[in-house]
Design a protein that fits this description.
The strands form 2 sheets. Strands 1-2-5-4-3 form a 5-stranded mixed β-sheet. It has a two-stranded parallel ribbon with strand order 6-7. Helix 4 links the parallel strand 6 and strand 7. The protein contains 4 helices and 7 strands.
Length: 193
């Protein structure tokens, strides 16, 4: 019986002195630098840790600079625009310390209200972010302030201004604007005329 207790005590002691993982260290560094951020380490179904950070838009650029300070080779993977009802969101995925496997995966979530849909541009910190910002501008109407290129990425030049295809509350283009750009099926108006 005492041997069982001894083993349990040893396991407990080992758990108590467990070194923080790289993801936990990164999360701690971000939480200390940005006390207003919501920082959490989550483990996905494959057992991989990810650092989730929800940051206000006023601190978003500073956070991205800080990530670059943590790892000068930080890799910006993707940015995804989101419609949350009253807010618009922009979720960025980055990977840091990838030369020292396992890398740390970061998800940075920033929101802005629909009645003031502006976020700071970060393409001077991560140049590849610009193409995802351009997509966010045309699909949900987020204005990335000071972005060096605000041209449309996917929508045609004659697509109406002020209509954002991925907004949940958008009504879409008016019928008279629908083109059948060579598509074999005219989806809204029946047979092609």
């Amino acid at each position: 019986m005492s041997e069982v207790n001894d083993n349990a005590n040893v396991e407990k002691a080992q758990e108590e002195v467990k070194e923080p993982t790289k993801a936990e260290k990164v999360a701690k560094a971000i939480a200390e630098r940005f006390p207003n951020a919501q920082v959490e380490v989550k483990t996905n179904k494959w057992g991989r840790e990810r650092v989730w950070v929800r940051i206000d838009r006023e601190s978003y650029r500073e956070l991205m600079k800080f990530i670059k300070e943590l790892d000068g080779e930080a890799h910006y993977s993707i940015g995804i625009e989101q419609d949350w009802g009253d807010d618009l969101g922009f979720l960025s995925h980055l990977v840091i310390y990838y030369r020292d496997s396992p890398a740390v995966s970061l998800l940075i979530d920033v929101h802005c209200p629909k009645d003031d849909p502006t976020l700071p541009d970060i393409s001077d910190i991560f140049p590849i972010a610009l193409q995802f910002e351009r997509e966010g501008m045309e699909m949900v109407g987020i204005d990335f302030e000071n972005a060096p290129d605000k041209r449309r990425l996917f929508l045609p030049e004659d697509f109406p201004e002020g209509i954002y295809p991925l907004r949940l509350d958008d009504k879409g283009v008016p019928e008279e604007m629908v083109h059948n750009a060579g598509h074999p099926y005219y989806l809204k108006g029946g047979a092609k005329k």
